[in-house]
Write a structure and sequence with these properties.
The protein is an alpha+beta fold and about 400 residues long. Helix 2 runs antiparallel to helix 13. The longest helix has about 40 residues. It is elongated. The model has no long low-confidence stretch (mean pLDDT about 80).
């Protein structure tokens, strides 16, 4: 085997210029493949992380997944309903204390309750539609990243201020309001209540910064006339991959609809899966093109070394050894190219990670999200070696089938 390697190395070294060109082709393919894979997966992970931080891992809502079966439907096979009027009933999760206590017995994570509703916020003669979220501040801080989004004031002030309100800085700018100002919030039932702004937040999501507000749970229950009622239970899990399992169990236990973050963003997850397929297809195509360069140089060596092949076969080298020699030549180029490509890929990824962008008049700063993973290097190197071996196999098979007698006689 050592002799075969030495022969292969000699062939490759004798055509140094072509070998260098083919090696550079593989290196460029591997390097750019690694950089592209790191950029695409980095952007996917960055977006997913931002998404997961912005929404609950599991959210239990005050609704049923399937419509309620009418009593008449249980008694008759064919029933048509006309002018059906539901019983007057306030929507919401009843007995929230008992429901949350039952979840805390087995849910591996943090749990918080909310009461969410639509209202109109009025200040200095201006009205703005607002989604107000009633929270228990100390519980909300452990299930969301609102603390990191605060730009002025403190979210914890909602604990000490019974009529406190935290709104987005964009909404405050539009209203001309600031911390310490008192605004009026009016619910859909006409109930009005005055709140004092104690904090401003900025998430970077315009819909939240313009139309979302937080207030103490008790104050919001008074505003919507829903005492001791909530309509959301939010869960932040220790392991986000268990969200579907936790949501299904919580739904069976409480009877209310439980939505995991994966279910809420199912279309987005499918788009990511399709994008990953496209990414690896492009990577494979790049390395396939590099393989043609290897195929070309091995074919040239086979043509030039025809008499050497005849001599080797005359000395008793079997066809398998002859074939191994030229496959090894392809692998030598592939290994060299893969090694150089890994270094090139790491350098490109490191450089791209330093590129920064500034948005929103200097308020937002971001950079290219690059994800460094040994899997990318392994996949790119593996594909390079695979294409190199395939590129070397076909010329090697042709070399192994050459008849030494025909070669020595000068037959074509």
């Amino acid at each position: 085997m050592i002799l075969l390697v030495k022969i292969a190395a000699t062939h490759v070294r004798n055509r140094l210029r072509q070998t260098v060109v083919s090696t550079l082709g593989v290196a460029l393919g591997v390097g750019f493949s690694i950089a592209m894979a790191g950029l695409m997966e980095g952007s996917q992970r960055d977006f997913t992380t931002s998404l997961i931080d912005a929404i609950p891992h599991v959210e239990i809502r005050d609704e049923k997944r399937n419509p309620t079966v009418q009593p008449a439907s249980r008694q008759f096979d064919a029933v048509a309903f006309h002018g059906l009027r539901p019983l007057e009933d306030l929507r919401g999760i009843r007995n929230p204390t008992e429901a949350i206590a039952s979840l805390r017995e087995w849910v591996p994570g943090q749990i918080a309750q909310r009461l969410t509703g639509q209202s109109v916020l009025r200040y200095s003669g201006q009205d703005m539609g607002m989604t107000v979220v009633g929270v228990v501040p100390e519980r909300e801080l452990v299930v969301s990243k609102i603390r990191e989004d605060m730009r002025a004031g403190s979210f914890a002030d909602l604990t000490s201020t019974s009529n406190g309100l935290v709104i987005g800085d964009t909404a405050a700018d539009r209203l001309g309001a600031d911390i310490g100002d008192t605004v009026t919030m009016t619910s859909g039932t006409g109930q009005a209540k005055r709140f004092k702004i104690v904090g401003l937040f900025h998430t970077g999501v315009s819909s939240s910064d313009e139309g979302l507000a937080y207030a103490p749970l008790k104050a919001v229950q008074i505003l919507f006339e829903k005492p001791n009622i909530i309509n959301r239970i939010t869960i932040r899990l220790n392991d986000i991959n268990s969200s579907n399992t936790i949501a299904a169990r919580a739904e069976r236990q409480l009877g209310y609809k439980a939505v995991s973050w994966e279910e809420a963003n199912e279309g987005l997850m499918e788009a990511f899966a399709v994008r990953n397929v496209i990414m690896y297809t492009v990577v494979g195509a790049i390395l396939l093109v590099a393989g043609f360069g290897i195929f070309n140089i091995i074919s040239t060596i086979v043509h030039e070394k025809a008499r050497d092949i005849a001599i080797l076969k005359s000395l008793g080298f079997p066809e398998g050894d002859i074939q191994q020699i030229f496959v090894l030549e392809g692998l030598v180029i592939g290994v060299l190219g893969a090694a150089a490509g890994c270094m090139l890929g790491y350098g490109l990824s490191s450089y791209l990670a330093t590129i920064r962008f500034e948005f929103s008049a200097g308020r937002e700063m971001t950079h290219l999200p690059i994800y460094f993973s040994t899997l990318h290097y392994a996949i790119a190197s593996g594909l390079a070696l695979f294409s190199s071996s395939i590129a070397g196999y076909f010329p090697a098979r042709r070399a192994a089938r050459l008849n030494p007698v025909d070669i020595i006689r000068g037959a074509t």
